[in-house]
Amino acid sequence: MTTKLFGERVPRVEDQRFLRGRGRYVDDVLVGPGTLHAAVLRSPHAHARILDIDVSAVLDLEGVHAVWTHEDLDGVMADPLPLLIPHPALTHGRTQFALARDEVNHVGEAIAFVVADDRYVAEDAVDRIRVTYDFLPAVVGIEAARAATHLVHDDVPGNVGARMEQHHGDAPAAIAAAPRRLSLDLTIERSSCQPMEGRGVVARWDPDTSRLTVWSSTQTSTGVRGCVAARLGLDLAQVDVITPDVGGGFGVKINHPWPEELLVPMAARALGRPVKFTEDRREHFISSAHERGQVHHVEVGFDEDGRVLGLDVTFWHDHGAYSPYGLIVPIITATQLLGPYKPGAYRVQFESLFTNTVMVTPYRGAGRPQGCFVMERTMDAIAAELGLDRTAVRAANFIQPDEFPYDHGLVFQDGRELEYDSGDYPASLDKLKALIGWDGFPALQAEAAAEGRRIGIGLACYVEGTGVGPYEGAHVHVETSGKVKVAIGLTTQGQGHATVFAQIVADELGVPLEDVEVVSGDTRKMPYAVGTFASRAAVMSGSAVQLAAQAVREKALRIAAEALEADVADLEIVDGLVQVRGTDATLALGTVAVLSNPLRYAFDEASKAATQFAVGDPGKPPVAEDDEPGLEARDFYSPQRATFASGMHAVIVETDPDTAEVRILRYAVVHDCGRIINPMIVEGQIHGGVAQGVGGALYERMEYDDSGQLLNASFMDFLMPYVTEVPDTIEIDHLETPSPLNRLGIKGAGEAGVIPGSAAIAAAIEDAEGFPITAMPISPSELHALRQSKETP
Amino acid sequence: MKPAPFAYHRPGSTAEAVSLLAADPDAKVLAGGQSLVPLLSMRLAAPSALVDLGAIPDLDSIRVEAAGVTIGALARHAAVLSSDEAAACQPLLRLALQHVAHPTIRNRGTTVGSIVHADPAAEMPVVLRLLGGSVVAEGPAGRRTVEAADLFVGPLETSLGHDEVATSAFFPALPAGGGVAFEEIARRHGDYAMAGVAVVVRREGEQLVEVRAGFVSVSDIPVVVDLTDVVTGGGDPGEAALASLEPAADIHATADYRAQLVRVLTRRVVAAAVADASSRSLTR
What pTM did the predictor assign? Predict the structure, then answer.
């Protein structure tokens, strides 16, 4: 048997290409002079009625080919964009138009679309468009949205898009009867994904074949394909969507179709020329999506051991101007807030509010960082109230290893029951305490205090539902050369899919890793797929890849058994050779591929072996009734419910007594994503997640002024952490609690690293400073202000 | 993020650059481009023409003499930073330049360009002003020297005429008995500082006879505060500095926090500069 690759630190096969600048992104496609370039006129105002759009000065400009406004859009192109995930509680869902019709609802909303010889001319043209506005008051922030003095959408009373409640047991009664009670008010600010590559679309219409090819930097090529076909009135069979290399997604590219994903193909067909749109950074800030902004009120009742008897959470979710992605983010907050704990009773209510700001769709973590912050701050508050160790309060509330599967009695984001499949939270906590040196910290803190230094420790625990349905598929094809081509339908944006899925296939088929090539996100190769989100690729596509590879293996052995006149049970595949155990009889997998396809015509030397006078039993049809030619298989994986990964982070910070700067001294992670396909890739995911968590905790916020202008729409003022702001070392320990829901025993790992960042860092700052931290992110300026307010009561 | 159309000139001499500028009141000088090019790309500036100094010979010199360091208009921050002779002559140059943005920006950005851009958050205008340096400008009327004290008139505004090109900046040498220090606090490494302080001190024998501080990001133009009496009298230089400044708020810092940074940094940097003067007198 070939050495098993599953579980090994296999170097990423993608890296040579990416690190040498040989990645191929959307902007690298169709770079020739025949391609036209698009630019978009975006609203400079947060809320206004459009009275008139004058484009007369545009078409005079040399190099301009066309300009579209809403009144130029035909048929369904003129309708609001789809509400992707409807929900009964989303009573007032609203989506934007591809180009604004009568009203703009946030700075950055698309108003006009210009196509020109190059992007320079296109931007010159955009500058010449004159729009007359009737200004309306802007609703900015949760407080203004709740006050509803002004409305974002005239027909959405109170700015409330949705109101939703879930409960398990009678939380208010449990709290009322509890021996101890606390209430907390907690706030998380907005941030956003900010992938290195922004959005981008290229489209080419081929009049000879009546086919449209679209390249998009998306997290769902099949989703884009469906929308483009529907809006442009094309059959699905006329549209191919290809996702080349993608420079990061982090959630923002799962939303679709973006206006440009429809306008670019529309323009390409109308003009008979390829058209390209490449988003710039300012556009990404003001016209893609944000996340995180929520305000929570918590009521909790508990006993003297810190055991939570009743938990009642009410929160307000800032949805921005539109709600195309439905209620996924607040539903995830509402359900995943529970983390590894089992409160006696739980009630959660939220309102999803419209504001005149960029819309909110999932960003890595997708509502969980907020929920984790709220739950973990509550745990810390209980510990402080009772004078107990913070880990003891958590341990008192953990779901125990023998209680799985554990049903919370709630409905998760996929419409299925919130039922945890497996986990071992006490073991994780033991590992984390050992890793960070929890029990020895008070002595270190006292030592530091004696030197005039303030240090603090914090921890946070989370559970993440990963690998949600509905399904993913894979196609595995052995070429006559013996090389294996694998196609998965979901897209890849840097996760290392080409490595981990090749590991699974190489193990299953007994071929060297370098003989396996994985292609993703190309609807020509896998037209049925959902997309890359919710930490689902490993679980969903990984399982599908394993199933398809297994089917190929079975077929290969069957054909080889016949050719070698051996029993299938006596065969093994090693280094691409099928062999009869204990004999010299072998057959290359490539030859098996030749034999799998009965031929009349030989096309090369090898294929002669499969021609009609060379092979086959004249007494049977060349292809059996229940079989197909070719050594290939397609299979799909569709789980009943999500699998639940978990983890815990601990952090030690130092706060400067004078400048209130916060420095991270140590950051420790214990992570359980079930069986690990490639520890190096999982650790990379954790590193990136922690970096984003640090950003969310200490640096990033969307700085809107009262008129709805985003004041920090650039990397100069929106403070994504540099490598200098992220801990040098992230200490990681793994726990592997296999998932019983899939054959590989795996759970997702993509988002985990970011989830507990704000919660853990807030706890550590609180421990260093000695007063509660209730809002994140926190800047030195804000920490200084908090100190001042504590000094002058 | 593509600039609006502009004409591009690449003169071969300073005189030619001056006449191009004189002929077009909307033209802008391009040197390292690290401030100007982003402004063009975001269409926050749309000059009719750029006059690129890049082809003018000998503008990239760094001349170190006993009196001080003369830096040519095309000398990059990185070149000045790595010049051991310049650092030996006036150590504040290297101390401050380490805080100017990131290596890639320092590789293109020019020190003289940063000075005449006159951003209140920039380090080098403050260093020039604190050290009592000057700039040489060439215009249609010829060459003149502008003292730093007369150069900065407002945020992003200098007293140079539109048709004048700053060809060099002069930073006086650290005198005997002198010491310097620089510290700033930014949200992220390499960002514009929320506040920064540069201090120069001078001793005569054991006696401290001069303590002066310059401030980054806390005033519209570089301000120098003389702290000699406060420090020699045993007072708090932090509070004394604040009395001459009015820190403002922005999205990264409240006015109160910025005042706190001035207070803390001034104390720290004065102490560091005094220590620097002591250690230099010991090694001499």
Answer: 0.96
